[in-house]
Amino acid sequence: MIDISMEMEQQDCPFIDTTADYAVSFSSFQWQFDESTNELETRMVVQADERDALDNGLSALKEHGNMHEYRLLKRWDDIAHIRTTINETDAMHTIRANDGYITGPFYIEAGSELWHVGFDSEECADRTLSELERNNEYSVLTREQNSMPDLQELVLNANPAMHLIEGGRELSDVERKTLRAAVEGGYFESPRETTLGSLAEEFDISKPAVSKNLRRGQQKVVGRMVDVLDDIDRV
């Protein structure tokens, strides 16, 4: 398998057009291509720095000429969850016509899209990249050839990886910010580059309070890590 990561600038993608004009980003976590209609259905998380930017971005996306169906599923202040159906873009058609396939989620921001695509041979990959140059701008970030043992390890590690990701989602906003500040400040280094007192001042709380937030965050993250150690050892 040839695994390629690329930054893509399609000329007919509603998501790319929207991020080029508005300060929003799109992250896909589900996609399905309907070959009978040549349409791509996606569920995405949309993020912006403020409510107005999100409002304007969603409105522009909904009215885009290549948007077949748009539905707002849920919204939390400056974050939204949407379901969309778009017509097949030129780049999608080119990849599919050359037996390529999507291997990871899409991420779209500032007028470009991060793609992860796979091919079964070097010939297919080279032909696709050549044809994509006709109507699209792109740059290849990584290109790797994965062997069967590599793919097997990736599959076997998928569940442990998701278990760790769920641990991150369990963190409260305060716990997440406290852990990030502690790591970036060097609290866990030896010798320590920051102290509980410094962290307490940063968050304007007492040292016992910041210590409690750290312990709770560590317990959730480390607890998840211990849970997956046996799975990792078996791989």
Q: Oligomerization state of this entry?
A: single chain
Proportion of residues in helical segments = 40-55%
Q: Any idea what the shape is? A: globular
Based on CA atoms alone, the radius of gyration comes out at 22 Å
The largest pleated sheet is described as: 9 strands, antiparallel
Average pLDDT level:
85
Along the chain, the helix and strand elements come as EHEEHEEHEEEHEHHHHH
Kindly, what is the distance between the CA atoms of the first and last residues, rounded to a whole number of angstroms?
20 Å
Strand fraction equals 25-35%
How many strand segments?
A: 9
Our count of domains comes out at 2
> Structural class of the secondary structure composition?
alpha+beta
Outline the structure in words:
The chain has two domains: 2-145, no CATH class; 154-234, Arc Repressor Mutant, subunit A (Orthogonal Bundle). A hairpin with a 4-residue loop joins strand 2 (24-34) and strand 3. It has 235 residues and is α+β, with helices and mostly antiparallel strands. It has helices at 14-21, 51-63, 90-97, 122-132, 148-156, 158-170, 173-185, 196-203, 207-234, and strands spanning 2-9, 24-34, 39-48, 67-76, 79-87, 101-102, 107-109, 112-119, 137-145. The radius of gyration is 22 Å and the shape is globular. The relative contact order is 0.14. The two termini are 20 Å apart. The longest helix is centred in the last third of the chain and has 28 residues, at 207-234.
